[in-house]
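We emphasize that the prediction below concerns an isolated chain of 233 residues; any contacts that depend on oligomerization or on bound cofactors are therefore not represented. The input was used exactly as deposited, without trimming of termini.
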Amino acid sequence: MEKLDIGSSISQIKIMGTVLSISGALLVTLYKGSSISSFEIKPSPSQSYSLPSLLAETSNWVIGGLFLALASLSLAAWNITQATILKGYSSQLTIVAFYCLFGSIQSGILSLILVRDSNDWKISPDIQLISIFYSAVVGSVVTFSVMTWCIKRKGPVFVSMFKPVGIAIAAFSSVLFIGETLHVGSVIGAVIIAIGFYTVLWAQSKEEKLKGIAADSQSSPSDQASPLLNILA
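Result of the prediction step, given as a token string:
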């Protein structure tokens, strides 16, 4: 859906910005470097969970990586599908409603298969209920409503460029909220992501301006000729 001309300087800048964003995201993920600072979080005694349980490590890195790759590919395919649907059907709320409905059905079926203990389905009115409510409202409805609105106005490439930015935000949020250590790799990667992100946005804005100028130049001859035709008539 994105037209690229290798000989065009704008297309070259967009490719370079995309490569920078992906490289920065990989740097944040794979390279740590020396530590800078950390924030220690001490849960209160009234909390029913403990921080080590939230940060428990697992050995299924391969399976987790495959699932994350599948999730990213599915989200990319969904963005492209949304852009195609919005060209013929512009009701954004209906698209988001169907997305949330079928996502809830799939998640419910999978949860019933994997979680067999009835005690795990009990929800206590504390951080668990707040997390579920926040995930449903902000994580699903608000997030995908904004994504659908942006895809309709700017296209799927504009939305996809925010994915590496989200990785950098997640790295810094983990330092603030769950007490992880901030490393040099995260800072350098975040800077590279920001440079690549704004490079692509700048190239897209220039491309839109050029398209607008080209459209005006094509429509101006007919506008100038119409008064003469009216006078002759």
